[in-house]
Write a structure and sequence with these properties.
The structure is a homodimer. By secondary structure, chain A is an alpha/beta fold. Chain A contains 9 helices and 13 strands. In chain A, strands 2-1-6-7-8-13 form a 6-stranded parallel beta sheet, with helices on both faces. In chain A, strands 10-9-11-12 form a 4-stranded mixed beta sheet, with helices on one face. In chain A, strands 3-5-4 form a 3-stranded mixed beta sheet. The longest helix of chain A has 19 residues. Chains A and B meet through α5 and β12 of A and α5 and β12 of B. Chains A, B: It holds the Pfam family DapB_C. Chains A, B: Pathway: Amino-acid biosynthesis; L-lysine biosynthesis via DAP pathway; (S)-tetrahydrodipicolinate from L-aspartate: step 4/4.
Chain lengths: 282, 282
């Protein structure tokens, strides 16, 4: 499908770090086109993304619905990516549904149950996922599959979990919590309060091996299982620097959603597991 | 079932390292009893296993079938474990089938297709598996599940594989080869000839972290996946010292087989995946 028209993508929240990284990934990826308009809240202006000047329309000052509908007319097949703020998640979801534009919601927070319920009921095409790092999602799902298939396989093993994030992140990694739940199903007896949170530069650069240039944006996780007699150990690490894994996963989700829209698939609401499952068909 | 009669276990090959480790695990495990007789080939004698004197009957000199049948009468519910030699695998399998004794075949090698075919056709209860390390099997299966569910999820990632074994092991780890196959299905383009074989003491103790006392018996594996732009890496390690993981997994297999025999299960031939799947029921 090399000759096909590129898929037009609007990135709402392009003024933020994640939105900008995603917009940049859209520009770089063959088969996708970043459109020069985006919705924002409280901040109008122009953002340059690798040479594409994107005009951000402030939805507090202008009619977001009108802007979106015009963009949909100008760019048939438009797909919206949302990397805005938790407080905008539900309002933006409603707007996309109202306009009937397919969207990928990468923004976390908001009332997730309400979001999923309303989008599903609407029949609007969407990918909604709290974690867009495709390979991290795959690993997390693999541990869950192992726990479902082989419950108790690691009974008697001791688990230790260490995670390092930028010091501005105060809470425990949600990914680590989800993976700990799987290890507990595998027979470990571990409480999430036992997860070691590394937030100081010395341990990050030294023990964890975080590159200095990524101290302000990284997600390093180490899980270690040790047998009761100490003769066997398993270690799993997933170490992410910067935002490219999330940006690339988001563009994958856009491409996936485009195919579903074109195929008029009867299922309309998806998550990253759905995107991953179709890997062989890409 | 704390008050139940212990399951009697004969360990053929008790004179060898793996047989002896398994016999010792049988002695230590509640609910199991090591019987004081075993079959051996070319070497008769008495082996002391944690205080249990096991008389080894040389099948080249005496009638193995008669010895086995007598043991089955003396110890109702007997289960045989086989850790002998590749050249004995098929003959021993035939003997166990002829006597109708359930068995766990931990010995590798021999004509596997013939073994599996004949045991399956006989309807004799057996667990036959080339790898008894339950947790290693679980990990290997988890990577296979991930590859089946999410083909291509790691496309563009570079894989490196390093494995360390005792210097007497000349060939590449079979487990590493199997796991590499899954990573290839996940989108890596890796040839098993690229697996780095570490067989020298300096790299084993230094880089790989093998404890000195296990230089003569260990299996350390490291798989590392790195994204094209270098910002993301995943690392998986499974490091085994000595034989206890295999010995314990074998006793788990014996317990599993005992339950299948007692339940008169319609399926009679199993592998370690079956043992693992029943984890929740143990």
């Amino acid at each position: 499908m090399v000759d096909a028209t590129p898929t037009p993508v609007m990135v709402c929240g392009v003024g933020g770090k994640m939105g900008r990284a995603t917009a940049s990934a859209v520009v770089r990826r063959d088969g996708f086109e970043l459109i020069p308009t985006a919705l924002g809240k409280g901040r109008a202006g122009v953002v340059d993304v690798d040479g594409v000047a994107v005009t951000v329309i402030d939805v507090d000052a202008e009619d977001g619905e009108a802007v979106l509908k015009k963009a949909m007319e100008t760019y048939p097949g438009l797909i919206v990516v949302d990397y805005t703020l938790p407080e905008s998640v539900n309002a933006n979801g409603e707007l996309y549904v109202k306009c009937g534009v397919p969207f990928v919601m990468g923004t976390t927070g908001g009332d997730r149950d309400a979001l999923l319920r309303e989008v599903k009921a609407s029949g609007n095409y969407a990918v909604i996922a709290p974690q867009m790092g495709k390979q991290v999602v795959a690993f997390q799902a693999a541990m869950k599959l192992m726990a479902e298939q082989f419950p108790g396989a690691f009974a008697g093993y001791t688990l230790t979990v260490t995670e390092s994030h930028q010091s501005s992140k105060k809470d425990t990694s949600g990914t680590a919590k989800a993976i700990v739940a799987s290890f507990n199903d595998l027979g470990c007896d571990f409480d999430v309060s036992q997860i070691e949170l590394v937030r100081d530069v010395e341990n990050q650069t030294g023990r964890m091996g975080v590159p200095e240039e990524h101290l302000l944006g990284h997600a390093f996780h180490t899980y270690r299982l040790t047998s009761a007699d100490g003769t066997v150990s398993f270690e799993f690490q997933h170490n992410v620097c910067g935002r490219s894994i999330y940006a690339e996963g988001t563009v994958d989700a856009v491409g996936f959603l485009k195919r579903k829209v074109d195929a008029k698939d009867s299922k309309t609401l998806y998550d990253m597991i759905d995107v991953l499952k179709e890997g062989a068909m890409n």
